[in-house]
Amino acid sequence: MFYYYGRKKQISKYYPSPQCDTIVEPFAGAAAYSAYKDNWKKNVILIEKDEKVYKIWDWLINEATEQEILNLPELKIGEKSSDFLHIIHAATKMAFHFKTIKVTAVLERNWEISKRIMSQNLHKVKHWQILNDDYSNAPDIEATWFIDPPYKGEAGLGYRHSSKLLDYDKLAEWALNRKGEVIFCEGKEGDYLPFKPLVDLKGVAGKVNKEMIYYRSDVLVPEQTTLFSNINV
Length: 233
Ligand SMILES: C[S@@+](CC[C@H](N)C(=O)[O-])C[C@H]1O[C@@H](n2cnc3c(N)ncnc32)[C@H](O)[C@@H]1O
Hints:
Layout: E1 22-25, H1 32-35, E2 43-47, H2 51-62, H3 66-70, E3 80-81, H4 84-87, E4 101-102, H5 105-125, E5 129-131, E6 142-147, H6 168-176, E7 179-186, E8 196-202, E9 208-217, H7 222-227
Parallel strand pairs: 1-2, 1-6, 2-5, 6-7
Antiparallel strand pairs: 3-4, 7-9, 8-9
Bound molecules: S-adenosylmethionine.
S-adenosylmethionine (SAM) is lined by residues 4, 6-8, 26-27, 29-32, 47-50, 53, 134-135, 148-150, 159, 161.
């Protein structure tokens, strides 16, 4: 729906399709997996600890109209903005720590694209729910749990609620106790669950980002089990 550091927009296609009627994203961010293809038609419950991110979702789900989004002012290169929705479009992981940002060509363009995408896709999220809370307070229901925390180590440092603040062993134990299906995302430093390689992504300056996955399902769907047998544990 909107630009977000660490969002799963480009790689949603590599994750298993949801098998349950409800998708829960306990680390919501921009919730790219829930928005992917037809996933949005499910019951979607988002949990996000960062109040500023929560407020974007609350506005999109409960208030915004397509026209209102299209009418949001354009950004002009060189001007300044203190609007968090603008700031996260700056395509930098440090964006969360900026109070004000100077509009660059990248930001101007990202914002223009995002306005169009938010407006076109707004109808998809109107039945979703967003909670401003810690992941551990998510409802204890059977669901497809798409768990995408700030990655352990440096990659997860940028967020306001960053990797520094997470107890990963506690998170692993909590994830193992979810009912239904668990799709758990991590990076190369994920060592607290039996993660397996999912895909290598090209980053900036030739850098390769290793995407890892832990997958577990109590939901019996034969084709899915075969397809992902290499990543089942
Ligand atoms: C990697 S991002 C999620 C990206 C998301 N999957 C997407 O597609 O945009 C992780 C998110 O978890 C949030 N977060 C960090 N600690 C949290 C916690 N304890 N409970 C809930 N959300 C948390 C961060 O604010 C951030 O938005």
